[in-house]
Design brief:
It is built from three helices and no strands. The model has no long low-confidence stretch (mean pLDDT 80).
Length: 109
């Protein structure tokens, strides 16, 4: 059970680092979009990505609270770990999409 909690905390830490990297990438992407005067559809997609990142941030915060509240409840830790892994996969996919859009903005304009 302690190993699971340790893995969960490690996964949570990685998710937080990934989230910070996404924030930085998003800020850079947003600045490039402004500089390149990206068309409205790309701006709309960036806003949707921003909303998704915000939702993921909220989910991570909820998971942190659940971890704190749960203490040593092993079964719940396993569920939370799975949720975090799913969130991390979602964040990686969003990162890939952001990078693709950034390439489109940089090379397309």
């Amino acid at each position: 059970m302690q190993k699971e909690l340790h893995r969960y905390r490690k996964s949570l830490g990685q998710a937080e680092r990934d989230l910070e990297a996404y924030r930085l990438q998003f800020t850079e992407l947003q600045e490039k979009a402004r500089q390149k005067h990206a068309d409205a559809s790309l701006r709309e997609e960036l806003e949707q990505l921003r909303a998704t990142v915000s939702d993921k941030e909220n989910e991570i915060e909820e998971l942190k609270k659940k971890l704190h509240d749960m203490g040593d409840a092993g079964a719940e830790a396993g569920k939370l770990r799975e949720e975090i892994e799913d969130l991390q996969a979602d964040m990686r996919e969003k990162d890939r999409i952001i990078e693709e859009r950034e390439d489109e903005i940089v090379h397309g304009l």
